[in-house]
Amino acid sequence: MKTQHQDIHSKLSLGGLLLTLGIIYGDIGTSPLYVMKAIIGENTINQELILGGLSCILWTLTLQTTLKYVIIVLNADNHGEGGIFSLYSLVKRTKIQWLIVPAIIGGSLLLAEGIITPPISVSSAVEGLLIFKPDIPTIPIVIAILFVLFSIQQFGAKIVGKFFAPTMLVWFSMLGILGILQITKNFEVLKAINPYYAYKLLTSDVSGHGFLILGAVFLCTTGAEALYSDMGHCGRKNIRVSWIFVKTTLILNYFGQGAFLLLHNGKSLAQLNEHNPNPFYLIMADWFQPIGIVVATLAAIIASQALISGSFTLINEAMRLNFWPKVRINYPTDVKGQLYIPSINWLLFLGCVGIILYFKESKEMEHAYGLSIILGMMMTTTLLNFYLVMKRVKWYFIAPLITLYVTIEFSFLAANITKFYDGGYVTMFIAFMLIGVMSTWFLAKKISKSYTKMVKINDYKKVLAELSVDLSIPKYATHLVYMTNSTRSDEIEEKVMYSILQKRPKRADLYWFIHVNILSEPYKKEYKVNEIIKDDIYRIDFYLGFREATKINLMFKEVIKDMVKNGEVDITSRYESLSKNHIIGDFKFVLSEKFLSNDSDLTFFEKIVMNTYFTMKKFSLSEEKGFGLDSSSVKIEKFPMVLHAPEKISLTRIH
After folding, report:
1. What are the chain's domains?
2. What angle do helix axes 100-126 and 371-390 make, rounded to 10 degrees?
3. pTM (2 decimals)?
């Protein structure tokens, strides 16, 4: 029987198409608010600039968004999930170690994009009010709108999508109709379909920027990465079919703005309207402008949704890959693939407020926008190349394809790099901070794992069996449960045995070792029981999809219930009075918490990594909450983590 999650990927439906419109197209769908304005800038309107700019937009949307993302990249799904970390999960099977670098950089850049997209989209829309009231303070309005948007995330993308979908349908329909009305007044604009005009603009200096005009053109494809990241929410088929409608309305609107501008040859945007020189609003009839501003503002609010949803997905996968500290995840709806991470939600909001207060106007934000996004797209292209090789795609297909995108994306990078000092440094600074967090967490986990000593359980079977019946030691619990990181069923951490036998001898009737395997696929809940000593030592391995909630407390109870039903284990209390009355025995979980030992002899690099790691760990989710354990039955034991134990100290005894 198919799950709801599988259905969304295999089935095309009207509901799925509407949900897709509501969730993932906000960013790329609101680009008409600022792209043509950015291309023209302070220049005088002329035919070469308008037709060349439109031609660049059309072919960017065709080659970069449609061909690369909608047709090719959406095929690289990890059991229906998309995004750069899903792509990394697929290509890491090639065992090429350095591929982790583009994965971490790309993920960090996408998160940085999530901080700049909401401010620029909402500010561009709200600034439409300046047409009617030039002195209106837009900053408080923008912040208030974003606060409402981030507040409703806790109700889930399904609820949000139901509200957003009709609005986005109206928005895209409005884009198309406004564009058609202007195109019918000036069919000359259709010449821009010819890529020659794009070439002519890029090789001339008519814009005052020449080739660098691509920095403004690139803004038309900024939401493409979000299409891939949010594939798990909507499904590949729904994205591909709805994109036909979305792309058509976007092109119509861009060409409509171009048709209007061609009728005002020789003028500047400021001469057309000094208060809000935005061609998007100028193509509207005066009576329609208030309606257009309201719809544009609603669409701009929704523009943020794709990046917010994508950020939640990204962090969830980053935790699975040991790139990010454990944080609390909520599942607000019963729809698989939809989650809410409170800490990330409010960090994004604070970042957005910081951007708004720093740049103040959308035209200033345009300078910060684009550099981080194109670098992120280049990281996806790098991983895509290895994915195609892994899939045994013929070299004569891969070579021209990757060459095409290396050329396109390096061209966009060269144009966007000039924005660094104008504001691009802000998003790059945010991205570098995120890269630092991900790299530190990953390296610290790797260092920690390399210094975790494993021992064979067989070597301790005899002593554990004897400990269980040693009445000279007070009973610690009927059932004693340890979480283990050991992937091998015949091994256990040395510290676990130290805890049971030496830290304080812990007599129990039954010992349980539990290991959680997080799989590379999103939805699976399986377990395996390994009986080490009958009625004495058991190991349970859980195999969970990376989108499944890790509720070990509840899952363990289900396993015990199943084992009792099958007659595999007796969990009745071993205390005589309780056993007589069939009372179930108590369960005690023991978790270990590491701290860096003063005896560690660290290199300078290891010292920085590990000290930063333990600082971040203080703010992350505790192990007991991460595993969904009941704190009343959990004992936390602290263990020193000794890295590079110093040599033995030579001492001389004197008499």
Report:
1. 18-439 (1.20.1740.10), 454-641 (no CATH)
2. 140
3. 0.84
